[in-house]
Amino acid sequence: MKWFFPGLIALIIPxxxxxxxxxxxxxxxxTTPDQLKGTxxxxxxxxxxxxxxxxxxxxxxxxxxxxxxxxxxxxQNELVMTPATITSKQGDGELWQIDVESTPESAAxxxxxxxxxxxxxxxxxxxxxxxxxxxxxxxxxxxxxxDQTVEQAFSRIELTGENLLQQIILHENGGNRTTIRLDNWx
Amino acid sequence: MxxxxxxxxxxxxxxxxxxxxxxxxxxxxGPKFDSSILSLLPESDQQPLVExxxxxMSEDFSGRLVLMLSGKNEQEVRTTVTSMAQxxxxxxxxxxxxxxxxxxxxxxxxxxxFPYRYSVIDSSVREILLxxxxxxxxxxxxxxLFGPLSTGGDSILEDxxxxxFDLMINRSSELNLQVSNSLLKVKNTEIPSYLIVLSFDxxxxxxxxxxxxxxxxxAQQELMPxxxxxxxxxxxLLHAAAGANQAKSEISTIGLGSLAGIIFLMLFVFRRVKxxxxxxxxxxxxxxxxxxxxxxxxGRVHLVTFAFGAGLVGVSIDYALxxxxxxxxxxxxxxxxxxxxxxxxGLFSSVMAYAAQALTPFPGLRQMATFSVLGLCASWLTVVxxxxxxxxxxxxxxxxxxxxxDRFRRKFPKLETNRVLLLLLLVPLGLALQSIWxxxxxxxxxxxxxxxxxxxxxxxxxxxxxxxxxSSRFLLISANTLxxxxxxxxxxxxxxxxxxxxxxxxxxxALSSSxxxxxxxxxxxxxxxxxxxxxxxxxxxxxxxxxxxLSSAVSIRENTENNLLTLDTWGVLPGSDGLKNHLVxxxxxxxxxxxxxxxxxxxxxxxxxxxxSETMSGVTFVDQVQNVSGLLGKYRxxxxxxxIAAYFFVFFVLLLRYKKQVWRIVMPxxxxxxxxxxILVQFExxxxxxxxxxxxxxxxxxxxxxxxxxxxxxxxxxxLAVSLSxxxxxxxxxxxALSDTPVLHHFGLTVACGLTLVWLLVPMMRQx
Lengths: 186, 768
Fold this sequence. Notes:
The structure holds 2 protein chains of 2 kinds.
Chain A: H1 4-19, H2 23-29, E1 35-46, E2 51-62, E3 66-73, E4 77-81, E5 85-90, E6 93-99, H3 104-117, H4 121-127, E7 128-135, E8 138-145, H5 148-153, E9 154-162, E10 164-172, E11 177-183
Antiparallel strand pairs in A: 1-2, 1-11, 2-3, 3-4, 4-5, 5-6, 7-8, 8-9, 9-10, 10-11
Chain B: H1 9-29, E1 33-34, H2 48-62, E2 64-71, H3 74-89, E3 94-98, H4 103-113, H5 123-130, H6 134-146, H7 155-158, H8 163-170, E4 177-180, E5 183-186, E6 193-200, H9 207-223, E7 228-234, H10 236-270, H11 274-298, E8 301-302, H12 303-313, H13 317-327, H14 332-355, H15 363-390, H16 400-410, H17 419-437, H18 453-466, E9 473-479, H19 482-501, E10 508-509, H20 511-514, H21 518-542, H22 547-560, H23 567-571, H24 577-580, E11 583-586, E12 591-597, H25 603-615, E13 619-623, H26 624-658, H27 662-683, H28 689-711, H29 716-733, H30 742-764
Parallel strand pairs in B: 1-8
Antiparallel strand pairs in B: 2-6, 2-7, 3-6, 4-5, 9-12, 9-13, 10-12, 11-12
């Protein structure tokens, strides 16, 4: 019987390898242009109300510098994120601003979102473990937080793409879920 | 061997036993030295509440060591911080090593504070509510909801308008710190820097504790990777250790230098070793006895007491020298008989002069008076009781130096006969008096600094980087109840906020910012209710929430609206420790709270805060820097007045014995003091307390010179004795002028000038 176990393990290992992808692999297969514009649609599921909030708008980013996230419906709001600050604007007025230095916990989550949208795998690897699969140009990654601050907010984050990132699903701890789809890039 | 008339062996042995016993008891109690400026403050001068506040404010500094570690490689710094903190945690001397914040602590705060989201609200939200801009809060909530960022759990029912979210993101930390992946990261630094805070219960002045803690830190430093370094360190213990080190190194340089000088001088004059040992014996007994007694009476010896006290006790070398020089021409039995009146008068005048300090309300001076009086008496007794026994077998012989020195003295012009000399003294005297009259006093707190400049700078730069607020200047708000204090604070904060917008202050920390008064909390609840009444229906309809959602949100608010945050609840919140010492005392009658300011305060701000405190009852602006300078000034005036009084007193006492001749004794130290002061005014930018203290020494030695010379009718060996006494004091204390410690430098310089002048003036006032 002794030969049986090594044989079994030998069978299992290739399976494990195919399920495990690395941030390096993701970095190779995914494309993140320096600049990108597109539209998004977002569905936020609120468990307490059992309701789904849908919003749509446009986004644009300059990799490593800033993201403009403009909600057009049902309310108008513009969110500008840089690595140091998150500013919320409506019309000409600034609604609120979070900066990394004064409110690190909230800002940390903003930074995560920044890294997700611009697919900054390097930064994400500091906060998450990754599993998932790659099939040609298609990829699907599941990020599980390793960082306590992120763990407080998200249980896991799913990313799907074909070259470019197409969908983000943020699973919050309380059962809330945000699904964001990115389209019509140019 | 026939026993001396004045002393018997049993008495002498009895005295030595007493000394030994006192020393033993003191040693058994454990010697404790103190160098804190605060302990020199007069007790009666400070209101107990202010004193308590100052004490609480300074605890941050006295019971803690703050370390900042920096390095280019963030991960390396983090690993180093972790291993260092873990290793230091093993030290039993440390009560706490604070270096990480568990996420559980942050979420614990959120959980504990969440029930108070309607009563404790962010000040910016309160402003919006007060202005009735309810729509704005509605908009903000909608943006958050439709935005991509996390909404923060399931608060859509409990806190639809995100009041708690606003409170949390605007909660500013007292320090420039952020929790980065559980560790304490310093903000706005060039390279990644992290903090470790060590708290201990022990006395920062204990040499043992200093060795243990600083040794452990040093050992950790050795283990660090080359790229990581301790870039900042702060804490009273550090200054205490540096002060002790500086004292140690100066003792080994200046101290050894002066000791070598004294030994050389004594060997040169007596050409034997024995007199040298004899001379040091009573002084040593005096100093050790005085230290032991002071320790027993006051519990600890202040370093300043020790330095000055030892200096004043040093005057007692006069008695020993007087005895030994007289012994060269008389037998052991005769000596005491001959010189006892002079010795008694010398002791009496010095003791009276020093003892008067005990009447002042200043603990520092009282301790010093006790020290010097006890030390002098002990030395005196040792000379009188032991010297006859110790010198029984010594042979008599005229000292060659005595004759030479006497011839030299006789060559001095005499004031009585030399009109030119009189003029030569009167003119500079007039100039000196005028310059003293026009001089400014120096009462700067820097006089008391014992730390090397490098440590001061490091301390200040770390304080700046961390944004540590000054613990020496604050507003103290007192009232009958905590509630009244908090209400008063809230009223004050409106004014302080204006100062922030005007750029006068960069920030402040107040208890009421995290624990609002109950009145304020009730107001907030009403404001939130208005917000709900105004906006909740439209808010929920916009997000197309079911009716059940609206009703549960309303009922949740109604069920929570009576939640008021009390001191007890606040006190157990994670993270409230930082503000706890802002609450000074809560008795049945008096409570006080403290508002601290960040950064440096300019002069104009200082005046504004002063003015604000004057307009409100129960509000005091406490400025410890000012207090200490004021204290130094008071001490200076006290000592000054008292030095003058001492001259008058001594003058009248000596008048009884010496009649018209009394001026020969009093004038030399008096003139020397005046000239010395004038010189100090020219070269030291003003007279300070420590200059005046040194003048007491000049008075003591000057008086002894005059009295002894008078008693022996200007015998050559007496002149030798007093000259030797002046030169040993010069060597022992005058050399302190070279010290880096301001206090010792000022003292030494004055002694050096004063004693030289006394020695030159005494012969001019003699008859022959």
